[in-house]
Amino acid sequence: MEMESQTRKENKKIKSVLKLFILVLNCLVLAIGNTGGPLLLRIYFIKGGKKIWLSSWLETGGWPVMFLPLTISYLYRRRTNPNTKTKVCFITPTLFMASAALGLLNGVDDYFFSYGASRLLVSTSALIVSTQLAFTAVFAFLLTIPGEAKEFALGEPYYYVLLSFSAIVWQFFFMGTIGVIFCASSLLSAVMMAVLLPLIVILAVLILHEKFKAEKAVSLVLSLWDFISYLYGEIKETNKKKKASKSEAITITES
User: Where does the sequence pass through the membrane (predicted)?
Assistant: First the structure.
């Protein structure tokens, strides 16, 4: 009996450590996508890029990258459950339709974000909008690339490299966001994005030589305040749960 209890505790501890590792990994992936995406998008416009539809498309153009974690997940489930039939897809028709509708709505948001990035400093646009999803414009992508590539300030090869990396980095953002929501909550995901805003602004100042104005400083302070408030709330809630657990254990022992 004691051996079973010890084994359960060890398994629970391993699962907790694994979950924490996956959460940290997803936070790292989210950080790369959330900071790299806007910077690469701004570089595209600074160096001669003009196509808003193309830049919008880039935010989902790297969707095949998603097949890598999905394949790994499928193979892992197949290996750990050899006696049961492994499902390739878990999404229901209702959820699929709802996701498609949300995708169309977010496509509008994606277009306006790209439009803002073409007109505003990356630090400013990042402070205005911290989340963005995607819109597909395949025909615009095919029609505009060759002519614009030749006029790109960094040269034609770097033009294609920038587009490719931009598409991939945006997928990091999506994967990280979904991963953090799955491992923790949507609130933590939103807080992570708010916390990353100072990093975006700092990188924009260092790499793109943008000016750091007073209103940006105020926005940064507010975003950091959001994170501190969330962290304080989480610590308070955790302590409350620990006290409740201890009192429950004492009550069981006494009875």
Answer: 20-45, 57-76, 88-108, 120-145, 157-181, 187-208
